[in-house]
């Protein structure tokens, strides 16, 4: 990517689209810290994090991966995964992590997902379905109230129905928590339906950046035409 | 014979627990073992010869193992070396270090009080060994069980399971891997310290084959005791260490010379890796037979062979078996 300048305001829900190889994932991985920047600066919530590690950025950042297996630890239980996600600091702490009061809190968190996960707190995550794992990843990513939520084609690996379900869940969670969100998607309909801002990436550049009413009025056909250029 | 195996097994148990920590929790095959085991022995014996008590000397052995683990951890995480190579490098370097610590290739203890000498003289040496082994292994297990109930322990488990997710959740995975290497090799060196005191000497060659012993014991232990809770898993390691010692004692009783024990260790490891694979295969074949009987077609050669091929059994050592 080259000469990219992108400012995301608090509360924005940005949908990012683009062809394969256009640089969507590069953009997201650079923000997340898995790819280093060659030049330029990256600030999160007012902190310059250009040279900081993935773990350091986790103070402000959460991420849902495309592969449901990546966002959760399969050998650990649902409750243990939630514990890891709850606070992005204190991973070196020597305090006991399991408390009875937390079990009840976790149940309350999982119930709205409507996936029966509230009764499976001690189940190892590897035994959950892809949809369940992705819903759990989403919940985990939002548990720490991040300043920026990164969604990396998080419904692409799911079947159409589960994909819709997880997308609806995403909308609910983002709205209730007023989360600033950046979502990469391959589905143009999702990019048009969700979010208040749409960014199109092509050849490592930001080709289109529309927001508010302009985005709401954007038609799929117009987008298609832009893609073809 | 069994009593002796229990005693010896308990002395080897910290090594098996150490191998378990890297191999199962962090998902790393760590060859540092072959160097940190004799390092523990060398440091402990040297410290005792220079006047330290057995307790202090054993703790020094543990700490030396931690340092060895730290080196491998740094090579692995900061210098981005493959973990196998990192282990080999530390192991090779430790050979020289161990020679320097000992001064010569074999150092016997003289009249120093070893850990078993703290116990009543009236007890038989087998009982003394068992008591010392129980106390040390018990302390190691208790500390680890406590560790894995803390947030730090959870972060360690998460790092071994899914490093990408752990980093995304704010866990500094490099630190966790280094810490895992340190604790693991500390336990392994502690085991070396115990064995040296039990044998009455430290030897430069006593580390050879310890990784095979460790892995075989881990797998044997998991065959006999498997569960998800940490105390069950760790107890399984102790059981594995004892059974493994017992197998070797039986082999020696059958007249195998001591020199052949290494190849026996290797064979035992091959067998315990293959056993679960064969078991899965047999199970698949049985299920298939039952299924074919149900649909009333016993002679379906073509389906049988194609299904057999599909059912690829999971190896215990395969890293992607999850």
From TrEMBL, chain B:
Its keywords, alphabetically, are:
Cell membrane, Membrane, Transmembrane, Transmembrane helix
Localization of this protein: Cell membrane
Q: Name the segments for region: Disordered.
A: 298-322
This protein's source sits in the domain of life called: Bacteria
- Residue ranges annotated as transmembrane are 9-26, 46-71, 83-101, 127-148, 178-198, 204-225, 237-257, 263-280
- Asked whether the UniProt record includes Transmembrane among its keywords, one would answer yes
Read off the Pfam families from this record. BPD_transp_2
What name has this protein been given in UniProt? Answer: ABC transporter permease
Origin species: Levilactobacillus angrenensis
